[in-house]
Amino acid sequence: MLIALIADVHANREALTACLAHVRAQQADRCIFLGDHVNYGADPEWVVATIMDYVSAGSVAILGNHDAAVGQRRPSMAAPAQTALEWTRVQLGASHRAFLAGLPLTFEEDGRLFVHADATAPQRWNYVTDREDAARSLRATTSRITFCGHVHRPATYNLSPAGKVTAFEPAARVPVPLLPQRRWLAVIGSVGQPRDGNPAACYAMLDTRSDELTYFRVPYDVESAADKIRRAGLPDVLAERLRWGQ
Amino acid sequence: MGTMRGQATIRHPKGATIEGFVIGELIHMGGMALLCKVTRPDITLPILMKVPSLSEGEDPAAIVSFEMEQMILPRLSGIHVPKFIAAGDFPARPYIVMEQIAGHSLLDLLDRLPLPSPEVAAIGAKVATALHDLHCQHVIHLDVKPSNVVIRDTGEAALIDFGLSHHDQLPDLMDVQFRLPYGTAPYMAPEQVLGVRRDPRSDLFSLGVMLYFFSTGIRPFGDPKGKRGLSQRLWRDPVPPRKLRSDYPPYLQEIVLRCLEVDPARRHPTAAQLAFELSNPDQVKLTTRSERVRQDPWSAVIRRRFNPDFAPPVLQHAVAAQISKAPIVVVAIDLAEGSDALAEALLNTVKRILEIAPGARLACLNVLKQHRIELDRTLDEEGKSIHLKRLVELKHWAQPLALAEGRITHHVLEATDAAAALLDFARANHVDHIVLGARTDSTLRNILGSVSGEVVAKAPCTVTVVRPPRPIGCD
Predict the structure, then answer these.
(1) A182 vs chain B: nearest CA distance in angstroms?
(2) pTM above 0.90, yes or no
(3) Which range of residues forms the domain containing residue B352?
(4) Chain CA centroid to CA B30, Å
(5) B436 shares its domain with B303
(6) Are B171 and A156 an interchain contact pair (Cβ–Cβ within 8 Å)?
(7) Same domain for B85 and B122?
(8) Do B274 and B355 belong to one domain?
(9) How many domains does chain B have?
(10) Which of B132-146, B230-244, B439-453 has the largest mean confidence?
């Protein structure tokens, strides 16, 4: 089975459209949306509606901190995120807000755990940015493979039977064999707001038969996405960072 | 070792069948793995099965290196590696089945050291060629030594055992795994001693150790034990081969000591460039390295030993980026044509290429046409003087490039077919880019055929055909 892993869309319609076209071309069986579907970008309503369609067709979506913040009265967020969040709330209809509020923190299937951030305490939204974080997250669960997002930079970690963690920066289009004798944590890069210096949307595909994970970088119309953010009156920094993938 | 040997043999008894493979005789039993011959009715190629030593108390590196090889080998292809056949499920039934290369191990040479210099250079060129192929496939071997090189019966060098290798696009399981650096003490590059695993030039150092050993019979850094002994190569330079053998050719000392430079940036930038030098001894730029007959004085060694900055810099670039910065570029110059405009256009194109590839080396080629019926003319004085005249003209053409001597070579090829000669040179020397001029005279092109056309069609690399700008309507 081919599973597309889609993280941190952040209401970027252009990026999600490009990735979903790429996913369809590979004939993936389903998508798993790893959270932070909204905020920052100019198309929260379209993005949530699209994910709802996918979920009703058998895909899975889980909750991210920005999705949770939509329903919270006083979420603690940095200034541009807070401004964008207030704007996002107004854009979303009741059914969209209800969908987001009903998303689970985690999803588990066949030894695979899907979670937005560090699995140690998913609702705390801690980042997995280095080997220590990865070791902590892996030791907190029994799943063989953990998939998460939240960091906006792709990375894979593995834990050997001897307890050592190796970090790896995956190259696009090169399948990484998830060796069965090790436990793995894959941080999926961001579709809608990459921060690793590469502005192309990032997602990954898991082939459950060969146990191989392949990251992809999909170019999309960054200019349009950035223009829409500006026209919506959202903070300029949110548009500008898309151009550079910062 | 004794107990493991017993267990391992019991685990894979001769005559048993594992997933279709019939187990044959045991070939090798090492600390990391055992190798036995196997057969399968549908495979005619001689094949081997490698099984890791997984028993309790064994070196934990055995498992990790087996995992690495199981990941890397299926992703490699070509004549310079054993062909991958199959792998078993890890950890239930770990094994790799691969081609048993028909040929001889370089280990067999150790009985008759030192070897004559031309033989050492020829072996070195083969191994460097194999390493270049490996590096182009994103893999750094990191354990180059005689027992890991097999010379095929067909003549090419093949590298075996990728258990300590690094693949640029796969997780490096050996990284951070162990306190001591893994490798083979006499051959390990200084940066490997410090834990750096992503510099392809580490393999050039190990090849340099091998060439030194083959040509002198002595290992340049001995066979040290422990990290302190290994670290000595960071500050103590080896005895120059010329001190050991007064007839040691300067070109070979130049190459070998360059391979053994502590700072990877001072070695050859790519294995292809090293292979080029080993195959073209008369084109090696000799520096003070080639003349050395003494090690550095103790004062220099002590200065290096206690200089905290004296450590190889950590390489940030991926293997592919490293290689692409240092291509071998060939420019073919048709001096007979006598077109100044074309010569200048070629010069400008080459300049641009060299600007974006600071590690590039340039080979300037001219083909001296031979007519089949008067082949023997080159033997006489007139032939020699034409050859020399062409060389002088080539050097004159390249002079405005102001390239350091080690980065440029000049070759006059004598051949009946210019395109075939260029193509042969490109294939033999792992050339990355050929630059040549288009024949301007269309009548001549119709009669003689287009050299550039044939080179473009058949070259194993990128080809740039240069044509000087000309006014519209002048064809």
Answers:
(1) 10
(2) no
(3) 327-373+381-466
(4) 27
(5) no
(6) yes
(7) no
(8) no
(9) 3
(10) B132-146
